[in-house]
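Hello again, I could really use a second opinion on something today. For a while now I've been wondering how a particular protein folds. Please have a think about how the structure follows from the sequence. Here's the protein in full, and shout if anything looks odd to you:

***
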Amino acid sequence: MTGRGEPVGRGLTGRVPELVAALADARDMPDGEARFAELDRIAARADALGDAHSGLDARFALVEAYLLHGERWRLAEPVRRCLAAVDRSPGLLTERPGDAELLRRHQRYAVEAAIGTPRVGLDQARALLDDLARRAGEQTGLVAQLRCRLADHLGDEPTARRRYDDWAAAEPDPTAGCPGCLPARRAELLAGWGDDAAALATLRPVLDGAVDCTDSPERALAVALLPWLRTGEAERAGQAHLRAYRRHRRERGAFPYLAAHLRFCALAGHPGRGLDILAEQLPRLDHPYDDLSAMEFAAAGALVCALAAEAGLAGRRVHRPAHGGRPTAEVDVETLGTDLLTLATGLAGSFDARNGTGHQSGRIASWLAERPLATPVPLPDEETGDDPATDPPFAPAADELAPLSLSMIIAVLDRRGDVYAVDAGGVVVGRWHEAVIQFRQVGRRGEILHARVVAARRLPAARLTEAYEFCNAWNHDRLLPKAYVHDLGEGELVLAGDVTTDLEHGVAPAQLGVLVDAAVATGVAYADAVAALP
């Protein structure tokens, strides 16, 4: 079988062919524990056989699989082993210039993941961060940012403020995350320290449209909600909430922003709307972005429930779907509030036990003690009867950049008039002539468009050498799709291919249409070529 981006017979110097084939097979496995275990097994086998390149490839694939599957808390160990491999073999990345930057990004993700969960030891997080400082430099923007955020998480505000100043003064770093997101990240810290005016000033370039970022301006609007409310700009806060929630209500990567929307509804005098949003978003709490965002969502939801009960809405019932051992139920507001409070305080206690502080428990307690600041804030949609449950999802103009989303992919196929289906995992599947093509989002925020084509015709296993030769010839003569062979182990070979496009900075609907057109056209050509084989 040919590996992705690495045809058989080329680029395998110093590698064990058995591991290359096994890694390619593992990449075709469904997401989940079986795939994680196989990639980990391949990495360990590569270590035993001295195949450093395959070990690094397997662990890179494992990190990407964890990110895709929402298992960010598991990043620390494979990243640590990647770093150790590079230290043992300094020339390991010489022929792979892009992987050095990718490894630094993975190291950042691992530190961020440790901040977001108590399941990673604090010593482990600090060791990763110290190692990053050794490699990148203590005064780089990336290191200063992570030290600031870790200190803030621990409740060490003086250290966090010093590191904030270092971060603000540092040169831009491409591995430090989206530059357009940095103002919102800084403003979150400032608002948490009570510096509402400074937070709003930091957000001003984003809100004025001077920052190019696919999360803007909605992320900045969510961060600005409570500072505006606390500084007397309630009407502006109401408008910002409506605009930002139209987008955040459906985006998978927007879960961490939902706590701000719930707290706004609670403190702006709209507990009923808060319950509407809580009921709509409650299923996402069963699959959160990380433990920190789950804690904040649960705390904000508990606050909404408490204020709703005080407002006479205690008898209202909220549908909660089944999850794990929990059955489907229609729970009353007070019961739901108690459940959310238990979850939030439990997670805060876990963080504090890991951190050796009481900061997170104190922060959640302060949230729960908040009460509306004034009379209910007028919302622009109150007179029109707009309902968040029926509000259409965010839909950018044809030439407007927006984060890749399932709805955008579906809209392109609808405009083309294609017949397709969407499975439970959000994978879009259709058949075009001899090609079955899947479109799905991968990456930490679903920012990568992955198209996989499978030729309808299958070859007998006895033609494996011929299938390899066909894929190698295709990869040599054509750019897309990247072709490979998959041995089902049942006497048949599947000839498949894929096209991957990184859309980290967003994609306009018109551009996405071009990408889908190209994926379908090249996929059909590939499948037709397979069908034409003798």
The chain has a mean pLDDT of 87. Residues 13-164 form a domain with the Serine Threonine Protein Phosphatase 5, Tetratricopeptide repeat fold (CATH 1.25.40). Residues 148 and 163 are 5 Å apart (CA to CA).
